[in-house]
Design a protein that fits this description.
With 500 residues, this protein is of the alpha+beta class. It contains 15 helices and 22 strands. The protein folds into three domains: 216 residues, Spore Coat Polysaccharide Biosynthesis Protein SpsA, Chain A, CATH 3.90.550.10; 126 residues, no CATH class; 129 residues, Immunoglobulin-like. α8 runs antiparallel to α9 and α8 crosses α10.
Length: 500
């Protein structure tokens, strides 16, 4: 029986790898070779859907089909952007019990089908998910720890909640009959179209197979040609992803409460970058529409879920303006993020709010302040201060000032103002050279504390030092200074030689 079946044909055992391909002549051969090299190739078929390629992709596909009887090709006019139409065409034509969708510029690892299909068949389930590696330069994702190399587990999504954010397609094997019955279809004519299949699928199946080994190799193209590489630079992506989260919002209403919360977490986290960048990226005459449509989604998600799913106060600020219904401040979002204020010992983005819940969404996260590069010369002690406050930007402009305090116990013995500068590579990272006259320091141990000055008051944080990073300097007249860690806090110890 050939691949080109209709929806009513009885499915045969095995796996069809559907390869949507559009202008991937440089990569298609490696993609197909990775499938041909499968340890379970005798149980596999390949269906290439040439989506109106303008290069030699279609001819390469035909050549492979001529050489391999279990490879077939369908040519169709381009129905992009996105691979949704090509994937749907492939799904409709699949004649095997299991189906995997592999992008034409990606690859499978040699045991991918063996691990995914073996687990799916053995446990009689409808979804198997495996790990992805990015190449040629690797990276980690927030869900990476869900995968335990060497393991094959059967579990519900509640046991690996971060996995809901792994919305990619090519690391997932589906039961064909289940996927067709589910009614899930890839969105057509937009980017990020796979999200409306993969995220709901993980939330609909009671349990799935989780393969801890890498099964999928995602190619991050140097020229940025992969769809996933141009997330925030292509304006159409903002509207495409907005359409996706609107669709997911409707689906979430039909999920049990626990799984609805996971869907909301995905919506909030996946869209935070678009919401935060929209005022500076989208045409001004379309911002009101973007604001209103996003607000309609966010209004149905509670503040606690927004706080848990986002990466920092600066990413939550756009959502706060929507919860507050404040389009004017959304339009000026970047300016609203320039200042910080102190409140009850914490630092907040200085954005007006009307409720305690929305104000708490503006609270900055962990402060990382540490000291290193100690030197001692000409009666002055110098060290490098490195500082980052999660959720805050450009601390040189956000605060009225920063002071370094040298504390004896909990009492500040003296303090000095410092001017921090953002790093060129990452403006969220800041550094400053701290200069302290030795005459200001008594002999003994001193802790280092930062004071943050804001229009609404002052708050502070201890400077840290790694436990195994002690440095020591000896200056003129036998003065010895050591920078070490005391219970993870940076501690300066001054020791003068008697009579020095």
């Amino acid at each position: 029986m050939g691949l080109l079946t209709n929806l009513f044909t009885r499915l045969e055992p095995g796996v069809t790898v559907v390869v949507p391909a559009h202008d991937v002549e440089r990569y298609l051969g490696a993609c197909l070779d990775s499938v041909l090299a499968q340890t379970w190739w005798d149980r596999c078929r390949i269906l290439i859907v040439d989506d109106g390629s303008t290069d030699s992709t279609g001819r390469i596909a035909d050549r492979y089909a001529a050489d391999h009887p279990r490879i077939e090709v369908v040519h169709q006019p381009n129905r992009g952007p996105g691979a949704g139409a090509a994937r749907n065409r492939g799904l409709d034509l699949v004649g095997t019990e299991q189906v995997l969708f592999l992008d034409g510029d990606d690859e499978l690892t040699p045991r991918a089908i063996e691990l995914l299909s073996g687990g799916l068949t053995r446990h009689r389930l409808d979804l198997a998910v495996g790990a992805t590696e990015q190449f040629p330069v690797g990276r980690e994702w927030i869900w990476s720890d869900c995968y335990q190399p060497g393991s094959v587990r059967v579990l519900p999504i509640e046991q690996v909640p971060q996995l809901v954010h792994d919305a990619r397609t090519c690391n997932k094997l589906y039961g064909t009959a289940w996927l067709r019955r589910s009614g899930l279809r890839f969105a057509e004519g937009i980017h990020h179209q796979d999200t409306v299949v993969n995220v709901p699928a993980m939330l609909r199946v009671p349990r799935f197979v989780l393969v801890g080994d890498v099964v999928h190799r995602y190619r991050k193209r140097a020229e940025g040609g992969s769809v996933m590489d141009s997330h925030f630079t292509r304006i159409d992506n903002y509207w495409d992803h907005l359409q996706v989260i609107e669709t997911l919002t409707g689906m979430a209403k039909r999920l049990p409460a626990d799984r609805r919360r996971l869907m909301h977490a995905f919506i909030v986290r996946s869209f935070q970058g678009f919401a935060a960048r929209a005022p500076a990226t989208l045409p001004d005459d379309r911002l009101a529409e973007f604001f209103a449509r996003t607000k309609a989604v966010i209004d149905g998600i509670d503040a606690a879920a927004i706080e848990q799913a986002t990466t920092g106060a600066d990413q939550r600020a756009a959502y706060v303006t929507m919860l507050e219904g404040d389009l004017a401040r959304f339009r000026r979002l970047d300016a609203q993020l320039e200042r910080l204020r102190a409140h009850r010992g914490n630092l907040y983005l200085d954005l007006p709010t009307t409720t305690e819940q929305t104000r708490e969404l503006l609270r900055t996260g962990a402060t990382r302040a540490w000291a290193d590069e100690l030197t001692l010369a000409e009666g002055r002690l110098r060290f490098r201060l490195r500082l980052r406050i999660r959720g805050a930007r450009r601390l040189d402009a956000a605060l009225d000032g920063i002071v370094v305090s040298i504390a004896d116990g909990d009492r500040a013995a003296a303090e000095w103002p410092v001017g921090v500068r953002p790093d060129d590579a990452d403006p969220r990272e800041h550094s400053a050279e701290v200069v302290i006259p030795l005459v200001s320091l008594a002999d003994g141990a001193h802790l280092i504390r930062l004071g943050f000055l804001t229009p609404t008051g002052r708050t502070g944080r201890w400077v840290r030092r790694p436990p195994d990073a002690t440095v020591e300097e000896v200056g003129d007249a036998g003065v010895r200074v050591r920078l070490a860690s005391n219970d993870d806090r940076a501690e300066l110890t001054v020791q003068r030689t008697p009579g020095g």
